[in-house]
Specification:
- Pfam families: HbpS-like.
- It is globular and about 40 Å long.
- The chain starts with 10 loop residues before the first helix and ends in a 5-residue tail after the last strand.
- It has one domain: Haem-degrading domain (Beta-Lactamase, 2-Layer Sandwich), CATH 3.30.450.
- The protein has a 5-stranded antiparallel β-sheet.
- The longest helix is centred in the N-terminal third of the chain and has 17 residues.
- Helices cover 44% and strands 19% of the residues.
- It is α+β, with helices and mostly antiparallel strands and 151 residues long.
Length: 151
């Protein structure tokens, strides 16, 4: 029987990221979060929308993860580029069908060698807090987060 190859994050890793990110949100007493985890091919591995999370949070979280994964840059760098390179980011948005959201809260999930395995997008609180939860989730899965800031 033919099988598809693994494409980055495993379901087990995605579930660990989601659980730890939500736990961090509860620890910080944040607004209800929505967590989206994508594999390296941009496919959804996990989506969880906490009770009370507003209507478009899944789309926003997906856009944060998709934007980061699309350019291989964390959300912080995407936000900087959105300010300094508006024409390029508008074109990216058009090419991506409006799915790329260039703000904090989209974090790349990498292995120890820096290979991108997927991305996490979180929406629900302020972007910096969303990002903190994504980082916590990625680290809890034993992976390295890339927020778009130099190490």
């Amino acid at each position: 029987m033919a099988r598809y190859p693994a494409n980055g994050l495993t379901l087990e890793q995605a579930e660990a990221i989601t659980a730890a990110a939500r736990a961090k949100g509860r620890e910080l007493k944040l607004q209800p979060l929505t967590v989206v985890v994508l594999d390296a091919g941009g496919q959804i591995k996990s989506v969880q929308r906490e009770d009370g999370s507003s209507l478009l949070r899944p789309e926003i979280a997906l856009g944060k993860a998709f934007g980061a994964l699309s350019l291989g840059l964390g959300g912080r760098e995407l936000a900087r580029r959105a300010q300094s390179m508006q024409g390029f980011m508008n074109a990216l948005s058009d090419i991506a069908g409006g799915r790329a959201v260039p703000v904090q809260g989209g974090v790349l999930a990498c292995d120890a060698g820096g290979t991108i395995l997927g991305a996490v997008g979180i929406s629900g609180d302020v972007s910096a807090q969303d990002e903190a939860c994504a980082v916590a989730g990625i680290q809890a899965a034993g992976l390295k987060p890339d927020t778009g800031d130099p190490e």
